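The passage that follows is intended for readers who have already worked through the single-chain material. We present the inputs for a multi-component assembly, then the predicted structure in tokenized form, and finally a short commentary. You are encouraged to pause after the input and sketch how you expect the pieces to fit together before reading on.
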Amino acid sequence: MGISDSDVAHIEALSMLRLESDEAELFKGQLNDILLYIDKLNELDTSDIEPTSHVIPLTNVFREDVLVTMSLSQDEALKNAPDASKGFYRVPKIIE
Amino acid sequence: MKTNMKTYETVIGLEIHAQLSTKTKIFCSCPTQFGSVPNTQTCPICIGMPGVLPVLNKKVVEFVIKAGLATNCTISKHSRFARKNYFYPDLPKGYQISQFDLPLCQRGSLTVGDKIININRIHIEEDAGKNIHDSSDIHSLVDLNRAGVPLMEIVTEPDIASPLEAGAFMRKLRAILRYLEICDGNMEEGSLRCDANISLRPIGQKELGVKAEVKNLNSFRYVEKALEYEIERQTKILTDGGRIIQETRLFNTQSGKTISMRSKEESHDYRYFPEPDLVPIEVSDQWINEIRETITELPDQKTARFVRDYKLPSYDADLLSLEKYTADWFEEAVRLGGDSKQVSNWMMGELMRLLNEKNLSLDKSPLKPNLLVDMLKLVTDGTISGKIAKTVFEDMFNTGKSASEIVKEKGLVQISDLGELDTVIDEIIKSNSKEYERYKAGETKLLGFFVGLVMKATKGKANPKLLNSTLQKKLST
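Having made your guess, compare it with the prediction:
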């Protein structure tokens, strides 16, 4: 099957990235290598194996709806943000 | 005349997001309170720091099972979460934890009027943060307090045939969610919001037409208005021989129109996959039964019981059952001895009017059921007239005082004493001799003129029955 130029463009758009043409070429190659590796797994016969989404045999792990005061302060919450203003994260304008 | 005009029918499906009334968020212990200082209700889990793990709030599962049972859904024995991947500044992890192929509830229905609206599914998901677009041209602001607040999404089948039916479905659903105490239904605060899919097709055609999706409708009226506008817009395009484009549209509440929101439609590709950080949910029959037992009487059952037990017209019963608090208020008044139809009339009339005027909800009303019942007794035993009762009622509403107190303070006791009324009537006849002569000459409709004058003179306190009979007698002599 393989990754085409338009696949790369699609992923680029989904990832909100802007790639130079040589980068796009580089990633196309790398993505194809990854797919080739996955194809290797397809060589295995899995007809007798149940599909699984979770590897640990656990279900129903819950917590109770109890308020624990462990929220971050506003300062702490915003500390890692590249930009903040008036107690908010500040991001490039979102066009609606 | 031959015409190409076809008649179209409307097909509507709704996707409704309801915020669950839990104390804490869905995957962490942060509070869910609305309107707090921005970015003060977050933690490393809900703002998507590396290396954290979500842990599911049990209440969320219970609430959604409750919703499923109340809407005749099948509860999935086996259910799991999925990642919905997209980039947006209000989504710190870069994906929303939702449910995809194995939702918690499936195939339900709600009856609206005489019509059954089928529900495709109800699933659990987390809310995103809030973007604020202030005056700046180059920046937007993000508040993540809402990120990770639990939601359920209720998806109907395209069974809805008109904007009014869509509104009725929403109202019914809201009433049920509030009865179950799993969602406060506050649409202004966004606790209940709706995306509507709408398409038209020529009557008789089986396959669906191309749809438009109108996003984020946060009032019943907006749902109805936006859909009405869409019908108009799509009908015009189709009758002009055009094609509907499948797209997302936004409702502009100012203009009453929907506008295309074509921005990122092309790139919608959520690449759902099973959420590896959360284990599946298994729901046993025992768990379902335990939850079923906590469900109390729902609006439809209450309406039926009110009609049966209190002999109310179904219109009254419907209105009184819409809110549990209103229904309880009504039943309390009846229990205290109020006549059911009288209580209903006062509640739906004067009480609703005053509450609307003051923009209050019933639980904030100073007027309690016992006050209404006491007042009704004064009307029944003739102490006050029905007309005066309105004044007394408004005073009770404003002050919380009892009817007898108000009647005493303001001297509003009805004049049922013949002697006292006689004097007033005699005086009025004397000072209106012209009208008196005309009445005697056969112009009997002047009775109303005299009644009005006596009522004015007695400040409305004259016993109407007594007044009428005495006046007629006196005028005829």
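Commentary: Residues 297-410 of chain B form one domain. Chain B has a mean pLDDT of 91. How closely did your sketch match?
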